[in-house]
Specification:
The complex is a heterodimer of chains A (266) and B (643).
Chain A (H helix, E strand, L loop, with lengths): L3 E10 L8 E11 L4 H14 L22 E2 L2 E2 L21 E5 L8 E3 L2 E2 L2 H8 L21 H11 L6 H5 L6 H12 L8 H14 L10 H5 L7 H16 L16
Parallel strand pairs in A: 1-5
Antiparallel strand pairs in A: 1-2, 3-4, 3-5, 6-7
Helix pairs in contact in A: 2-6, 3-5, 5-6, 5-8, 6-8
Chain B lengths: L15 H8 L12 E5 L3 H13 L2 E5 L17 E2 L11 H11 L6 H21 L24 E2 L5 H19 L2 E4 L2 E9 L2 E9 L5 E5 L2 E4 L20 H8 L4 E2 L4 E7 L22 E5 L17 E2 L1 H5 L9 H13 L7 E2 L2 E2 L2 E4 L1 H7 L1 H19 L8 E10 L2 E2 L12 E3 L17 H23 L10 H19 L6 H15 L6 H21 L11 H25 L23 H4 L1 E6 L8 E6 L14
Parallel strand pairs in B: 1-2, 1-9, 2-5, 9-19
Antiparallel strand pairs in B: 3-4, 6-7, 7-8, 10-18, 10-20, 11-17, 12-13, 12-16, 14-15, 16-17, 20-21
The chains are: A alpha+beta (266), B alpha+beta (643).
C-alpha cells in the first residue's frame, strides 16, 4: 500500500462574520498517510501562502485531542470518519487516494462563523456560567478525605466530566442542540456529593441558558453521542431531564422567576 | 552585575510563609472593588488566580489567546498532581516533598519557595475536591494515589490520564462563576502584545483582538502574567501550537529579568517525528516505563528489521545495562540523553527523517507475558489506543517507538518570594516564572505549582502590593500608554509590510532545529557559539524575507504566528547565551565538558550555585547577567547517582 495520497478538498471559505461564504476547491497531492488532518491543512496553507493567497483559518491548539479547540465537519461528519477521534488526531490513513472531501465549519445558529472554519463557541461558556460549578471559595474547603465518594459515582462523574467542550455534539445534531454538552456538566456535578447543595438551581439555570442561547431541543437522534470524540453517553441527557423535572417539581417559585434575597428559609 | 534579593523570609522554614502573610498589608473588603487587576493567561495559574481574586472582590480582567479559558494547555497534563497528604501512611510529609523537589531540581531552586509549594500542596487537593474534581477513588470512597516518576511514596492524585483537564476545568468553572457574578471580565481571543510600564510600575497591557485585529491598551493597578512556558521555541514540542513566549518576552524587553532560560525539560517518552510536515509531538505518560522495556538493536544492520524477528542476543536493553538498579525508571533527563546517544550511534529505529532514525523501542512483550494482556490493557489501554491512533501500530503487536521531546521550561521570568518580577507591580505565576523547579522538574509537580501560585500565593501577595503601594490614577490617554500602543501598531505594520518569500513556520522550524541541535539534550561550547552566530543571521533574514498575507484588521493566523516567531528568535539566542555561560552541568543542563566518570551531569557548586537572571539591553546588544545566590540551609547538595 502506498503511503501517499492525492485528494480534492472543497473547503468553506468565508472572510468574516458578515461576509457570504462559498466552497473553494483545492487539490492536494503527495499527502503522507502518517499526517494528521490538520497537518494536511498546514501543508495546503504553506502552499497557499507561497502563492500569495490567504491560508484557510481553522481553530486548533493542543493537537492531542484534549483542548477541544479543533473541529471541522468532513463530508458531513463532525471530526471526520473515525470514531472517538478529534480532527487533530484524525490521520490521513483513514482516507483513500482520489477521494473528494467537503470541509466545513460547525453549523449552528448559536455558533456564528468568524472566518473560514473558525466559529464562535462562547455560548458554551455562558451555559457553564449559568451554574456549571460548585460554589466554593478558594481556601475554605475541609480535608479532601472527609468527603467520601462511592467509586461507581466517581467513575460515572468522570465519564461525564471528560467532555472537552468542542461542540461536535451541536454540529452533529439535526436540531443543533447543546443537550449533550449541558447534560455532561449537570451529570458530573449531580453525581457527586459536592454538587448537591446547588443541584436544583443548577439544572434549571443551565437548561434555561442553553435554550436562551438559541440551541435547539433534543429529539433523541443520538447523533451527538456517535460524533463525540470522548464518547460521552446520551444517558447523561436522560439524567439531565430527570434532574430538570425533579428540580422544577420541587421549585418553590414559578420557572423563570428570579431568585430573591428574601425567599430563603420559607 | 547586581546580586538579586529574593526577599524570602528567614527563620524556621515551616513558619516562613505564615510569617510573610502576617507581615502583609491587607485591603479592606469594601475597598477591593476599587482595585483593578489584569491576569494574562487562563490556565491553572492564571485561571485560579483570576477566579480567586474575583471571589475576594477585586475588579479583575482575564485575557487568553484561545477561544475559551478552558483550552489553556494545562488541560493536556496527563499523569497527576503531587500532594504531601500522606493518605497512604507510607512515610510522606511536607518535608519529604520539599526535600525531593529541591534534590530533583539538582540544587538550583530556592528552598523557601519550594517549602511553601510543598505546604500548599495539601490545600490544593482540598480545594479541588471541594470543587468536584473527579479524582480517582478507592472502593471505600477515599482518594486513590499512585507513585509517579520514580518517587518512593504514593503521593500523586490523578483523574484517569486526564488530571490536567479535570483540574483546569475546576479552575475554569470557578472562573466562569466569577464572570457570572461580574467580578471578572473575560477577554478570550486576545493576544497580549506588550506590558505598559508607567513611573517604573506595571500599569497595564496592550492587546490585539485576534478576531477584529483591534490594538488596545488596558490599564490596571497590577498585572499578573500566567502565560505558560516557552517550549515552542523548539518548534516541535509537546506544547499546544499556540503556546508562545510573547507575553513574558515583551515583559523582559520592558525590564523584567529572565532567569535560567536554558533550563528546558526534555521528556523521554514521546511519539517520534514521522516526517518533515510534523507539527507537534505527543507525549505518552512516563508511567509506561514502569512495565515497558527500552531497547535498540545491538548493531545498526538490524535497525530496519521487523523487531519481532530480532533475537534476544541482538537487542541492547541499554538502560537496564547501564543502570542495573534503576533500569528503565531512571530520571527523565537521563533516559532522554541515552536515547539520543543510541540514535546518534546509528542504532535508532523507525522511519528515517533527514537521514537518521530517531526512535527507540519501548517493548511490552515481556509485560504481556508476565501480567497477561488483560492487566496490561487495564493499566495502559488508553495510552495504547492513543499511540495506535497516531502511528497506526498496535503496541500489543509491535513495540512502541519513543523519542524525547521538549516538554516543560523551568526557566522563566525572575520573581522574588512574592512572585513579583523586577518590574514592580508585574507578578508572574506558573510555568511563566522560574521559581520552584530548579534545573529539573519532577513529575506531577507542574500542576501543583500552577495551582499553588494561582489559588494561594498570588491572591495574598497581590493584596499586599495593592495595600502597600500608592498608585496614581491612570487612563489609556496617558502618554506612556499611548506610546506603548503605537509601538505595537508599528511592529504589526512592519510584520505585514516585509513582503518577503518565507513563511513564519519555515523560520520557526529552522530556529527550532538550531536550538534542538545546539541547546537541547546535550550542549557544548563550540555548538553554542555556532548557534549564537547563526541565530542573529536568521533573525535578520526574518525581518527582510518574511511573508505575511492579509491585513491587520481581521482574523489573521499567519500574522499571529509571525509575531510569536519574532519573539522566539530573540529568546532562542538568550537560551544559548545562558547555556554557554553556565559552565557546569546540572539537571537538564548537560554540558559535555562537565560529566562525571559515569557520564552524569557534574555540578560546579562553587561557581554556579546561583540563579542567572538576564537583563535586556536591546536586540543587538549583549544582555547583562545578574545573579541570585542560592543557599541550602536544609538540604545539603549531593551528586545525583543512579548507577
Amino acid at each position: 500500500m502506498s503511503d501517499k495520497l492525492n485528494l480534492v478538498l472543497n473547503v468553506w471559505r468565508q472572510k468574516g462574520p458578515k461576509d457570504a461564504g462559498r466552497f473553494v476547491r483545492y487539490e492536494v497531492k503527495d499527502i503522507s498517510t502518517h499526517m494528521s488532518f490538520l497537518e494536511m491543512l498546514d501543508v495546503l496553507n504553506e502552499r497557499l501562502l507561497a502563492q500569495g493567497e490567504e491560508p484557510i483559518a481553522f481553530d486548533h491548539d493542543c493537537r492531542e485531542g484534549i483542548c477541544g479547540a479543533c473541529g471541522v465537519v468532513i463530508d458531513g461528519s463532525p471530526h471526520g470518519p473515525s470514531k472517538r477521534t478529534t480532527t487533530c488526531q484524525l490521520h490521513m490513513r483513514s482516507f483513500r487516494s482520489g477521494q473528494e472531501l467537503t470541509v466545513e465549519p460547525w453549523r449552528a445558529a448559536a455558533f456564528p462563523v468568524l472566518r473560514d472554519l473558525v466559529v464562535d463557541r462562547s455560548a458554551l461558556d455562558r451555559i457553564i456560567q449559568a451554574g456549571g460549578y460548585v460554589g466554593v471559595r478558594s481556601g475554605s474547603p475541609r480535608d479532601a478525605n472527609s468527603i467520601p465518594v462511592r467509586k461507581e459515582d466517581a467513575d460515572l462523574a468522570m465519564d461525564a466530566a471528560a467532555c472537552i467542550g468542542c461542540g461536535a455534539c451541536v454540529a452533529a445534531c439535526p436540531n443543533a442542540s447543546a443537550s449533550l454538552f449541558t447534560a455532561a456538566k449537570i451529570s458530573h456535578l449531580a453525581l457527586l456529593p459536592q454538587g448537591q447543595p446547588e443541584r436544583r438551581e443548577r439544572a434549571i439555570a443551565m437548561v434555561a441558558r442553553m435554550d436562551g442561547e438559541g440551541f435547539g431541543h433534543c429529539t433523541n437522534h443520538g447523533e451527538c453521542e456517535s460524533s463525540c470524540p470522548k464518547g460521552i453517553s446520551v444517558d447523561n441527557i436522560a439524567r439531565m431531564n430527570r434532574e430538570f423535572l425533579a428540580a422544577a417539581a420541587a421549585s418553590r417559585r414559578p420557572l423563570g422567576a428570579e431568585a430573591k434575597d428574601d425567599d430563603g428559609g420559607a | 552585575m547586581t546580586v538579586l534579593d529574593a526577599r524570602a523570609p528567614s527563620g524556621p522554614i515551616d513558619a516562613r510563609w505564615d510569617r510573610r502573610r502576617f507581615e502583609m498589608k491587607l485591603v479592606n473588603p469594601a475597598n477591593r472593588r476599587k482595585f483593578s487587576i489584569i491576569v494574562v493567561g487562563s490556565g491553572l495559574a492564571g485561571g485560579a488566580a483570576a477566579a480567586t481574586l474575583g471571589e475576594l472582590g477585586y475588579d479583575v480582567r482575564c485575557f487568553c489567546y484561545q477561544d475559551s479559558p478552558r483550552r489553556a494547555h494545562s488541560i493536556a497534563a496527563q499523569g497527576g498532581i503531587n500532594a504531601a497528604k500522606n493518605y497512604q501512611n507510607d512515610g510522606d510529609s511536607v518535608y519529604r516533598l520539599f526535600h525531593d523537589t529541591v534534590k530533583g531540581g539538582d540544587f538550583r531552586a530556592r528552598e523557601s519557595n519550594v517549602y511553601r509549594l510543598a505546604q500548599l500542596s495539601v490545600n490544593i487537593i482540598d480545594q479541588c475536591v471541594a470543587q468536584g474534581v473527579p479524582f480517582a477513588r478507592e472502593y471505600g470512597g477515599l482518594l486513590a494515589n499512585r507513585s509517579f516518576g520514580g518517587a518512593q511514596v504514593s503521593r500523586t492524585f490523578y483523574a484517569r490520564g486526564q488530571t490536567g483537564q479535570q483540574l483546569l476545568l475546576g479552575a475554569y468553572q470557578a472562573l466562569e462563576r466569577q464572570v457570572a457574578a461580574g467580578t471578572v471580565k473575560m477577554y478570550p481571543r486576545h493576544e497580549m502584545m506588550d506590558v505598559v510600564v508607567v513611573g517604573g510600575r506595571a500599569r497595564g497591557i496592550v492587546t490585539r483582538d485576534l478576531v477584529t485585529g483591534a490594538i488596545e491598551a488596558h490599564v490596571a493597578d497590577v498585572v499578573v502574567l500566567a502565560t505558560g512556558g516557552y517550549g515552542n521555541v523548539f518548534f516541535l514540542s509537546t506544547n499546544a501550537k499556540g503556546c508562545n513566549t510573547t507575553a513574558i518576552w515583551r515583559a523582559h524587553r520592558r525590564g523584567a529579568l529572565f532567569a535560567n532560560p536554558c533550563f528546558t525539560q526534555i521528556h523521554p517518552t514521546c511519539i517520534p517525528v514521522a516526517g518533515d510536515y510534523q507539527s507537534k509531538l505527543t507525549l505518552m505518560s512516563e508511567s509506561l516505563r514502569n512495565d515497558g522495556r527500552v531497547w535498540v538493536p545491538r548493531g545498526a544492520e538490524d535497525c530496519g528489521a521487523d523487531p519481532a524477528k530480532i533475537p534476544e542476543d541482538r537487542r541492547d536493553y541499554y538502560l537496564e545495562r547501564i543502570y542495573p538498579s534503576f533500569g528503565n525508571l531512571v530520571p527523565r533527563d537521563i533516559a532522554s540523553r541515552r536515547a539520543k546517544e543510541m540514535c546518534d550511534q546509528g542504532r535508532g529505529v523507525g522511519p528515517e527523517v533527514a537521514g537518521v532514525r530517531r526512535g527507540v523501542y519501548l517493548d511490552f512483550r515481556d509485560a504481556i507475558q508476565r501480567l497477561g494482556r488483560q492487566t496490561v490493557a487495564e493499566r495502559y489501554g488508553n495510552l495504547f489506543e492513543m499511540y495506535e491512533r497516531i502511528t497506526g501500530e498496535d503496541p500489543f503487536d509491535v513495540p512502541m517507538r519513543i523519542y524525547p521531546a521538549t516538554h516543560y521550561t523551568m526557566g522563566g521570568l525572575w520573581v522574588n518570594y512574592d512572585l513579583e518580577s523586577t518590574i514592580p507591580g508585574l507578578f508572574v505565576g506558573g510555568e511563566a516564572n522560574f521559581s520552584d523547579h530548579g534545573a529539573n522538574r519532577l513529575g506531577a509537580s507542574a500542576l501543583m505549582q500552577g495551582l499553588a501560585d494561582g489559588y494561594f500565593v498570588l491572591p495574598a501577595t497581590l493584596g499586599h502590593y495593592l495595600g502597600a503601594t500608592k498608585l496614581e490614577k491612570l487612563t489609556a490617554e496617558h502618554a506612556e500608554v499611548r506610546g506603548a500602543v503605537e509601538e505595537v501598531r508599528a511592529r504589526v505594520d512592519k510584520l505585514l509590510s516585509i513582503g518577503g518569500k518565507r513563511s513564519p513556520d519555515s523560520f520557526h522550524r529552522e530556529l527550532g532545529a538550531l536550538i534542538w541541535d545546539n541547546c537541547g539534550m546535550s550542549r557544548n561550547a563550540a555548538n553554542l557559539e555556532r548557534a549564537l552566530r547563526r541565530i542573529p543571521e536568521l533573525r535578520a533574514e526574518f525581518w527582510e524575507n518574511l511573508a505575511v498575507v492579509g491585513s491587520g484588521s481581521e482574523l489573521n493566523q499567519v500574522l499571529e504566528k509571525a509575531s510569536r516567531v519574532a519573539d522566539f528568535m530573540e529568546l532562542g539566542e538568550l537560551m544559548c547565551r545562558d547555556a554557554l555561560s553556565r559552565d557546569e552541568s546540572c539537571g537538564c543542563h548537560y554540558r559535555e565538558e562537565h560529566v562525571t566518570p559515569e557520564g552524569e551531569a557534574k555540578r560546579d557548586d562553587a561557581g554556579f550555585q546561583h540563579v542567572a537572571a538576564w537583563e535586556w539591553r536591546g536586540p543587538d546588544a549583549e544582555p547583562v547577567r545578574h545573579q541570585e545566590a542560592l543557599e541550602f540551609e536544609l538540604v545539603k547538595p549531593v551528586q545525583r547517582s543512579y548507577v
